[in-house]
Amino acid sequence: MSEHRFSISQITTVTQSFADDLDAYLAAGAAGIGIWEMKLACDSLGQFRVSGLEAAAAVPAVPSILPLPLIEGPADPAERVEAIRAGIRRLAPFEPACVLFLTGPGDDRETILEGLRAIGDEGRRCGVRVALEPVQREFAHYWTIVSSLAEAAELVEEAKADVGLMYDVWHLWREPVEEIERYRERIHGVHLADWRQPTRNTNDRVLPGDGVVELGPILEALRWEGLLDLEIFSDADLPGSLWKEPPRELAARGLEQLRGAVSSASA
After folding, report:
1. CA-to-CA distance for 22 and 247, rounded, in angstroms?
2. Does the pTM exceed 0.85?
3. Domain of residue 33, CATH code
4. Which of 19, 131, 134, 207 is in Cβ range 3.0-4.6 Å of 152 for a Cys bridge?
């Protein structure tokens, strides 16, 4: 397998601008950036192209088919799906590894299936892979109806949608590694963070190596040759929150620890 390459998802440095993220990630030695549509400005594409960074998994400004209780956005799922489709079109020139999205929580399965088909169709029209992200079970009621690769794949198959899968270590580290092997070819992006023990809420990730995730078996099963994308959600109201750190310093420290954790796990 080729040498691992690393990127940083922009939510990690949530308070910085797009331009400041590019500068910080380059200074940290990243090969890529996980773009969040909410950070884009009119000159972002030009800045991105000058930077030489690659685009890892991207996130649309409206990230789910059904409404999310913790994030503001349209209440109407049809408006949300159209916003995701518009996000795919806006993100396409950056050539991301994929554009990810969530189902959102709720019982309206038919609306989710229709949304999956529409999002898959938009991705195909734009030449951009799209990926459904499962969310770990403890906090799934805020985000999703699927909490494993198998559940996500089953939903996509039911919809007959042109949609891949997103693998997030923080969400799926407790799921069987056999699932990774089964669905490996359908995975379009990989996020990494570590699990704090105990975890205090849905936004309480720690940097790789600072938690309890055993990364070796996961990386071995993934055989991932794309960007390994550091993605940190935190809660600034909690003691020890990573979002309290200066963003530029967090990017540098985060990438250093990601490199170290992956190196140790691959040894």
Report:
1. 12
2. yes
3. 3.20.20.150
4. 134
